[in-house]
């Protein structure tokens, strides 16, 4: 059951798709305190209460014991003390023996979530806007509460099937030669691949909707050549439009009056990659429609996937900010600086980026409603995602396109996917990215995945292998890294064949993964779940934070530690271990409920199938998603019931309804099935 | 066996205490490559090779799979990609089925340790100086190889017994009132404590060897008042001496010609807390003796413990560096900065701190040998530690003093302890600090411990409790935090009684911990060891990185994860679990070899005693180390042999030889002993 309460004058976020009646008064479960402009909601925590949700955030699956801050931030250091990342997803579920309770704050401004940090025994949620809709959701389990929320916020984005293929990316790829080389290195070795990303260097001087005239002389030709190799090109688009009258997007944007302005009506400018930029008012439907139209030349050239970046928005500096920094520097110049002044000098240039004063200095026109940016800050990336997807639908309403964004807010999950941001080549981030998945799913973001191998810092061969072993299970499976870091395409490494073999497992699993993805979309369900969702009465399962449930039949337990040949896994029930080395090389080990040391050498991924279930695998070696229909399925399971597995399918590219069919273990057509029967000792 | 090889002209580091003959040629196990000035040593790695050592470094106990860099650095972000921390300890042990091999590079310049990072199958160690002594140590186990090294580098520092008591510290304590209040809050609640640290604010304008005239009007009176409460004051001393003719240390230093100089003979200056400073030439014996004499007024006032800081040395900026930054800023001022120029501007002020060019711009006079600083950079903190301890010995040769430093090099372990640097209130650092301990011990640094609760960032109540549960086992047990972070004295928290109870466990354990510490000092042994050292044939033990052996009888397995009521522990043999809540409240659970889920609620610490062993506990509640002799001992063990436990003792304060006595389980005098006999099911 969902109860809606309204405080102040909520802004039109379009996060929800159902207009619920507003209840009078305050929810019984919360103590409400109003301040001059802010409002806070508090409630006591029971010792056994766990807190799930909050989407893209640092720390564990259970979010209890930290202060989080909804404020979309371009901050590359995702250490555990961080309060904000690129997205803000204002939904939590509090779950304990006494109750299960969901709270969704539809509030696009800054919200502070003190989840048992200041006091271990209390939650305090503070909205600095004081204008919001609060949805209180009750249900009999965290999964059902999450489903209620999902029903309220609308169906999740459905990408084309090819977007589930392996994607190679790197900041630095900019030319047609780069693309050809990357594809050649994969295809010539038989490493499966479906897409290659173009990062900012493909543009002409970092200007959106341009391509470098020498590096990519014939875009349509390149796209067509790639397509013959079953490769999709996926260019990046940034939020800022350069202040340059020679720039087409800039000229058009000025003509369309599409950019955000300061209080005095002058245009707001701040620097991003190409220098000083204007920023499209994505909260205005007219500006959104114009921006969406800018993708058309790329779409016409055959591009059918994009990633939107820098849309928190990331601001390197404004002229006001940088001039202030210079004046501080002038004041301190030549002085013998004791520590306070030294820090002031050090801090002044660092503070020009993503400065709060800049975010308070411009306004949106929300179709007639003028709103200062900081009040709606967390909507900006959402608006860009929506503009893009609307533009693609306007270009071709019948086909699905790939789109994923860095910044988002609940609502954006209907228009595109989300990658897990600019992580680093840290083992700690392999674990963090695993732990983010259930919370992102709860907030509707099903199409997601991490930069495999890590974006910042230098990867190592073993870290990349282990990360691929997680990536084969995430809907978005992209290897991406930053300029000046170690090159991390799999073919750079001595053990590339092991990595290739792991990627072949991804393709063998795709029928199952895609089917579970479709079910999660259609039934507002979770592709990834905390073990606590499935085994609420099992205290150890509830505390297990380095394993997650995948789909309805499986659990994954990746290795996220260096220099190990296995790990301890907790099985909350009997499960069949599938130790995966390649599409055609795996061990099947039925295991009883409990703790186990499970061998997992560097080139071995771990999948666990619940006893009583079976899942389909595609047979044979597959190098691209287009080949999958040609590969017969077979089942693997331990004591599956005769119902077998219900496979959801569709054509993978249109919005035509899909089909369901039952794969039964007894079906002689599934002749390669491996079904294990009976108890193990 | 130790073999010594010499390359180039090694500098006199005084890391070792034995002058070994130099062997001709190169060691058989290494491939040696010489470059213009650098030299590198490489060897292939076997798949099962583990690498231990390197002292204070990030990442796991097994150092394989990363590049480390010996270059003492004041860097507060101890993330896993960091190559350098505050100290450099150039000793590793490579251990696998094929061989056990130690390598010690006595080289005080920059050394790069590529331990299977660039290639997973190779170690490459590069000395940028090219001048070094290389010691190749063979033995039948990592422990015996470590002992060989320890015999070469000399006995580890022995602090007074009181230094093993609980110490409270915070950046911000500066006045006599602060001291009185902290002590009162502990003593009035019966929270055991033996020392309080004074961070930089006790000084007059951050000037070493001063104290603030208003905040501490009567230093000797304060020290005496504290001593009546059995509290030792531990002031901080920094490396830089302010360039101020009014400052006594500055004046004396100039008179003694004790400061480092540039190539042209002018004094080198760089800013630290008090602004521009001179830097004592700790590599010169005359300057060292002078600097050591500066402690005398504080010693005469009764201070008997110090911590030395900022001695990498940390340099906030030099005039040359900051002027360069200003010139870059001038060049870019007013321009529309595309990304490269923006980064240049951002980076230019950040780069003034700890700049390599500054470290190359001054020289040491190593008793007649003129050496550019960067060639001997890693000796600087060592020299300061030595100056301090020599000064204290000159003041009173018969008594032991507490001293711990931030920066060090092998050799400094003979003169003082080391705290694990400016960590953060991260669960990840609780684990990191555990994982650092065995490597530090291998390099001779036995007296060590982390800032409990974390230095930077805000702690949480549960993190502090868990960190105390590790801290009760480390020789240095100090709660320390940074200015502007959440106050983290235990009495600030609702569950302070649980924390107090955990601290009482520390005092009950002190007879055992001190005895094992003495054994480790006297026998060149390890107080903390990787499980791989004790169970080399147990593959799972070798890979267990979140548990360490403590002394000869015990293993610890702290909880380092939030929101959990226990953890999985691997027992490499039968062990007795001692689940500790207070000195008089514990569970004893005999457990068989293997993996176990072990309950450990928030206020419960875990200790494991090997079956066949017993260890002594002091009975009764103890609030200060001075009380310990009044508290009778008792034994706890599971099937201990009749030899019982050999207790090492001394008077805790002088250098007089200690005694050994055997505590037998059958001794009726140890009447409170709890001895468990026989098998468990």
Task: Summarize the structure in words.
The structure is a homodimer of 681-residue chains. The longest helix of chain A has 27 residues. In chain A, strand 8 and strand 9 form a beta hairpin. In chain A, helix 5 packs across helix 10 and helix 12 packs parallel to helix 13. By secondary structure, chain A is of the alpha+beta class. Among the domains of chain A are: 152 residues, Sandwich (Immunoglobulin-like), CATH 2.60.40.1760; 35 residues, no CATH class; 165 residues, Sandwich (Immunoglobulin-like), CATH 2.60.40.4040. Chain A contains 15 helices and 37 strands. In chain A, the strands form nine sheets. In chain A, strands 22-21-20-17-13-12-11-24-23 form a nine-stranded parallel β-sheet. In chain A, strands 25-26-27-32-29-30 form a six-stranded antiparallel β-sheet. A five-stranded antiparallel β-sheet of chain A has the order 1-10-7-6-4. Chains A and B meet through helix 8, helix 12, helix 15, strand 28 and strand 31 of A and helix 8, helix 12, helix 15, strand 28 and strand 31 of B.
Characteristics:
alpha+beta, Immunoglobulin-like, 6-stranded antiparallel beta sheet, 15 helices, 37 strands, 9-stranded parallel beta sheet, homodimer
